[in-house]
Amino acid sequence: MPYKILEKKEISMRNIWYKIHAPHVAKKVQPGQFVIVRAFKNGERIPLTPVMWDRDEGWIVLITFIRGRTTMRMANELKPGDEILNIAGPLGNPTEMEKFGKILAIGAYTGIVEVYPIAKAWQEFGNDVTTLHVTFEPMVVLKDELEKAVGRHILETVPIDPNLDFPTNMKNVTKRLTEKVRELLEKEEYDMVFMVGPAGDQKAVFNVVKEFGVPMKSDLHPIMVDGTGMCGACRVTVGGEVKFACIDGPEFDAYQVSWDELIARSGYYTDMEQRAMQEYMKALQGGEQ
Amino acid sequence: MAVKRKIIKERVPTPEMPAEERIKSFAEVNLGYTFELAVKEAERCLQCPYNYAPCIKGCPVHIDIPGFISKLVQYRDDPDRAVKEALNVIWACNSLPATTGRVCPQEDQCEMNCVMGRVGDKINIGKLERFVADYAREKGIDEGLLFEIVPKIEKKGQSVAIIGAGPAGLTAAGELAKLGYDVTIYEALHEAGGVLMYGIPEFRLPKSIVESEIDKLKKLGVKILTDHVVGRTVTIEELLEEYDAVFIGSGAGTPRLINAPGINLNGIYTANEFLTRVNLMKAYKFPEYDTPVKVGKKVVVIGAGNTAMDAARSARRFGAEVTIAYRRGPEDVSARVEEVEHAKEEGIKFEFYINPVEFIGDENGKIKAVKFEKMKALDERDSRGKRKIVGTGEYVTLEADTVIIAIGKHPNRLIVNTPGLKVERGRIVVDENLMTSIPGVFAGGDAIRGEATVILAMGDGRMAAKAIHEYLTKKREGNA
Ligand SMILES: Cc1cc2nc3c(=O)[nH]c(=O)nc-3n(C[C@H](O)[C@H](O)[C@H](O)COP(=O)(O)OP(=O)(O)OC[C@H]3O[C@@H](n4cnc5c(N)ncnc54)[C@H](O)[C@@H]3O)c2cc1C
Ligand SMILES: Cc1cc2nc3c(=O)[nH]c(=O)nc-3n(C[C@H](O)[C@H](O)[C@H](O)COP(=O)(O)OP(=O)(O)OC[C@H]3O[C@@H](n4cnc5c(N)ncnc54)[C@H](O)[C@@H]3O)c2cc1C
Ligand code: SF4
Ligand code: FES
């Protein structure tokens, strides 16, 4: 069942926006849910988040950060008018709509695009939502949209240090993230903290939030395959019990999550992913000659 | 036709790829009969009379086995005709013979009862069934038969939604389409086929065969909506508003885990994840295909069913040393005999009476060994007739850099959580017509049985189609 790409644009460095015709998802999707995308015949199934949608017109917006081979191939090989082979969903449990009061909703890097629909809905539901986006300077996304959607949007950027490679560079973002969260929690009283971002950053932020005793929900991103509870790839230990993030989550109580296990599991394929990427780059260069 | 037959005791063997060659590839192991070999094997059949033929009684869907076998002999001078007639007999009960011919546990069903077993080898019914289906497909004979069926279908003007495109759902869909209903299948994955596609490996059931079986359904007018997860994309309640009846064939997809420390270490796969990566996502072709899988040097597979054999033999094809660890004894192994034999030929080791109690990891959160408790069997038997086992308090540790858990599965939770749907021990409860506690909603296959077999799922699909037809006939006439 192919799904047509209606629009595609680079909205900031390595962040690509796709507006896609996917009526079965648009009809049902709620903030907090995700889809599983398989873009190519020999492609992987990857989880992505509908950021915006129109139920009547039947489209959804996905925003991907170019990370490895799949997101890179999507950016390189798909044009408006092309079709994505599969979009399954919506999947995962919708975010709870409750009056929490004052909420700090944090997005690290492209994680903020997943915060957007949730923060917007919480604000509309009568909460006072502050969003915090921490990322590298050229990777800012959805600034205007967030400013419109919530009570206050805070943007913190970190310059990319040309002398540092990527993982080392990311430590600067983590540092700014934890400092900023600490500063906010010292100054203001929040009823709840919510976060989307890499497991390592989530853990770092949680360690700060814990000191203040503020409740925290984490949107977890373990590696997934089917997204329907069938494979068990996405299992995480929460409160000592094994949960499947795709059908039990993806949001969990940050105080209950076994963070080190999640961090270890998220990195299991890094070497193979790098190899896949190198092969792809080689093929690209070969193709250009 | 009480012709006196000469008894030929030995089975005509099917050619197989040698073990040392096949562990290097995912190509099919058993190469199947040629027409000549098939006729030779068919000639051995005693043609027991229909009412008596014990093979038919042993078949869960009661295929007229002597009936189809006799066609091969009767029309031996015209192979195409022979196959067409034989296929017609099989199709009356079984729409996926290329699949069942390969994966049914024949030794426990039709072949178990075969009279020839008293004097020599039992008839190789499975391989004959497979031959008929394969030959028909290669020559387009099955399509020809379909084209004869399609124009005769009378449209009923009622519609049925099917949840899940596994053997149960596919069979129900085919039967209902032949009866003239508009049928739409809702499938969660990007490909139809269920376990046939994501679970059973290419070397046992080539995916092109499953695809061609599904193509035939599409020719009957069945619509398949992949990427549609019932319980999320659409609910059963919503389906009931749009369709006149619903059939649940969502299988038993949720893996059971072992409640032991370290279960979430890296390198511990559920069989479902491992096989899905390998089969559905073609991880054995990484990096040509994008999905990775990691198979270490020492693989331990826990469990001894078909799933465990498939996982073990797949891992072997990545060059690993593989051990199957099972908490019971050899007599309780539930996998098909052929698979166990193939596994042994391929150099897979078996360790019996050991039960995992702890998964031991290294400092990076990666599995390095499994600690097992040694078990012993008692004379007492449990409700399934298996000998009870108890721990001995003694332990052994096996080194492992990959572990695959294949100890069973539960039905999909997204379906089971439907309000008003009666469920017991995770399985959907049905009455004798396969109707669930929700009127108009039927169910079959692994979703009601827990883990069973392809042919039982198909049998349920057929039976449910019949029941749905009766239900909808009443509804139609009631409305008229
Ligand atoms: C519920 C959920 C929602 C997500 N929403 C978005 C989104 O809206 N936008 C976005 O850019 N990213 C999102 N992600 C992350 C996205 O799935 C990964 O970036 C993507 O899989 C990377 O694929 P790749 O081939 O480009 O990179 P790879 O080379 O495969 O991997 C790079 C890194 O991405 C992560 N990753 C890889 N495969 C998966 C997988 N199957 N599931 C989860 N993480 C994986 C790993 O940490 C890995 O180290 C989401 C993840 C989850 C679980
Ligand atoms: C590895 C393995 C090897 C096996 N080997 C054999 C063998 O050799 N011989 C044999 O007879 N049996 C074998 N079995 C068992 C056999 O495959 C099953 O009994 C049979 O497939 C059950 O059929 P089913 O149609 O009930 O379910 P399945 O085949 O499980 O199909 C269910 C389908 O429903 C879909 N689905 C699930 N939930 C939803 C939802 N919420 N919405 C939409 N779709 C959904 C799934 O994606 C799947 O496609 C094996 C099983 C496994 C796992
Ligand atoms: S029981 Fe054996 S010999 Fe008798 S009809 Fe069946 S297959 Fe032939
Ligand atoms: S992704 Fe397979 S069970 Fe969650």
Note the topology.
The complex is a heterodimer of chains A (289) and B (480).
Chain A: E1 3-12, E2 15-21, H1 23-28, E3 34-38, E4 45-48, E5 50-54, E6 59-65, H2 69-77, E7 83-84, E8 86-91, E9 102-108, H3 111-124, E10 128-136, H4 143-149, E11 152-158, H5 166-187, E12 192-196, H6 199-212, E13 216-219, E14 235-238, E15 241-244, H7 245-248, E16 251-253, H8 259-266, H9 270-288
Parallel strand pairs in A: 9-10, 9-12, 10-11, 12-13
Antiparallel strand pairs in A: 1-2, 1-7, 2-6, 3-4, 3-8, 5-6, 13-16, 14-15
Helix pairs in contact in A: 5-6, 6-8
Chain B: H1 19-22, H2 35-44, H3 54-58, H4 65-74, H5 79-91, H6 97-103, H7 110-113, H8 125-138, H9 141-149, E1 159-163, H10 167-178, E2 182-186, H11 195-198, H12 207-219, E3 223-225, H13 236-242, E4 245-248, E5 254-255, E6 268-270, H14 271-280, E7 298-302, H15 306-316, E8 321-325, H16 337-345, E9 349-351, E10 354-361, E11 367-381, E12 387-399, E13 402-405, E14 409-410, H17 413-416, E15 423-424, E16 427-428, E17 441-443, H18 446-449, H19 454-479
Helix pairs in contact in B: 2-4, 2-8, 4-5, 5-8, 6-8, 10-19, 14-15, 15-16
The structure holds flavin-adenine dinucleotide (FAD) (2 copies), iron/sulfur cluster and FE2/S2 (inorganic) cluster.
Q: Describe it for me?
A:
The complex is a heterodimer of chains A (289) and B (480). Chain A is an alpha/beta fold and 289 residues long. In chain A, 36% of the residues lie in helices and 31% in strands. In chain A, strand 1 (3-12) and strand 2 form a beta hairpin. Chain A is globular, with a radius of gyration of 18 Å. Chain B is an alpha/beta fold and 480 residues long. Chain B has helices spanning 19-22, 35-44, 54-58, 65-74, 79-91, 97-103, 110-113, 125-138, 141-149, 167-178, 195-198, 207-219, 236-242, 271-280, 306-316, 337-345, 413-416, 446-449, 454-479, and strands at 159-163, 182-186, 223-225, 245-248, 254-255, 268-270, 298-302, 321-325, 349-351, 354-361, 367-381, 387-399, 402-405, 409-410, 423-424, 427-428, 441-443. A five-stranded parallel sheet of chain B has the order 3-2-1-4-17, sandwiched between helices. Chain B has a five-stranded parallel sheet with strand order 6-13-7-8-9. In chain B, helix 10 (167-178) links the parallel strand 1 (159-163) and strand 2 (182-186). The model of chain B has no long low-confidence stretch (mean pLDDT 91). The complex binds flavin-adenine dinucleotide (2 copies), iron/sulfur cluster and FE2/S2 (inorganic) cluster. One flavin-adenine dinucleotide (FAD) is lined by residues 103-104, 163-169, 186-189, 194-195, 199-200, 229-231, 249-251, 253, 275, 306-307, 310, 336, 412, 414-415, 445-447, 451-455, 457 of chain B. Residues 103-104, 163-169, 186-189, 194-195, 199-200, 229-231, 249-251, 253, 275, 306-307, 310, 336, 412, 414-415, 445-447, 451-455, 457 of chain B line the site of one flavin-adenine dinucleotide.
